[in-house]
Amino acid sequence: MQDCYVGDIGDFGKYGLLRALAAHGLRLGIVWYLNPDEAGQTEEGEITGDGSLIKYLREDKARLRECDPCLYDRLQEMVLEDNDRRVAAVRRRSILPDGTTYHEAPLSFTHMPSIGQGAKQMRLDHRADWHETALQVTASSDVVFLDPDNGLAGKSAKPHTKQGQKFAFVSEVERWIERGQSAVVYHHCGRQAGGMDRLASIWASHLQSELNPDWVRTLCFHRQSARFYFILGCGEQAQALNMAIDAFMESPWAGHGHFTEK
């Protein structure tokens, strides 16, 4: 996650899903894997690149507002009127329901050495401390949402590298599952051999076999670029979470083709 992406079309789907889950009485915990902004800016200060995907708030051609009018109107005010595009604004403006807890400390190695004696261990220790704080902040949550910049880490990603800070590692997700909490993990699809269905199946099977939750369900948000949400049901709240997903997939979010289940 990066501040420059806050309120874009991907965020609208993300917050819509989370608000729908919380509407069924589930307490949310949000873990931003917050990285430094990479998007460029024009001379007028407008964000370019992936962070510029806010046209939907001016021209709602895809009928997104019908899915969650309150969310749509709040993001219009936050993004278009106030240009307040920071994860902290999501908390301050109550975009997500009361009772939601947030871990918004940056996960970044920009202030740390990349080479030299002890550099790797220093970065690993920093990440471990960051993760422990995230666990503490979300201890009372029923469902914890993990929002890495790129998604789940594959075999080539290393947790101490600049690229690695953009990923959530399965070993990190495991800590929430171990203590009986459900989790929702963001994953950017990108271009994969075999297509999206194969990618979804591979990751869902891997998460099930490695973490052994009660179940894994995969939702895909299709506006602009495709984004996966791997939902791992676990513990006492798994049944309520399952019902919340079923209701969500019967709502305009699915009816208009914005979300599908893989």
Task: Give a written overview of the molecule.
Strand 7 and strand 8 form a beta hairpin. Helix 1 (about 10-20) packs across helix 7. This protein is globular. The chain has helices at about 10-20, 70-80, 85-90, 120-135, 170-180, 195-210, 240-250, 250-255, and strands at about 30, 100-105, 145, 150, 165-170, 180-190, 215-220, 225-235, 260. The protein has about 260 residues and is α/β, with parallel strands linked by helices. The protein has a 7-stranded mixed β-sheet, with helices on both faces.
Topology diagram in text:
Elements: H1 9-22, E1 28-32, H2 69-81, H3 87-92, E2 101-103, H4 119-137, E3 143-147, E4 151-152, E5 167-168, H5 170-178, E6 182-188, H6 195-211, E7 215-221, E8 227-233, H7 238-248, H8 252-255, E9 259-261
Parallel strand pairs: 1-2, 1-3, 3-6, 4-5
Antiparallel strand pairs: 6-8, 7-8, 7-9
Question: What distinguishing features does this structure have?
Answer:
alpha/beta, seven-stranded mixed β-sheet, 262 residues
β-sheet strand percentage: 15-25%
Biggest sheet layout? 7 strands, mixed
What series of H and E elements makes up the topology?
A: HEHHEHEEEHEHEEHHE
Number of strands: 9
What's the average pLDDT? 90
Rg is 18 Å
Q: Kindly report the oligomeric state of this protein.
A: single chain
Tally the helices: what do you get? 8
Give, in spatial order, the strands making up the sheet with the most strands.
2-1-3-6-8-7-9
What is the helical fraction, as a range of percent?
Answer: 25-40%
Secondary-structure-derived class: alpha/beta
Distance between the termini: 23 Å
Could you name the ranges where pLDDT drops below 50 across 5 or more consecutive residues?
A: 40-51
How would you describe the shape? globular
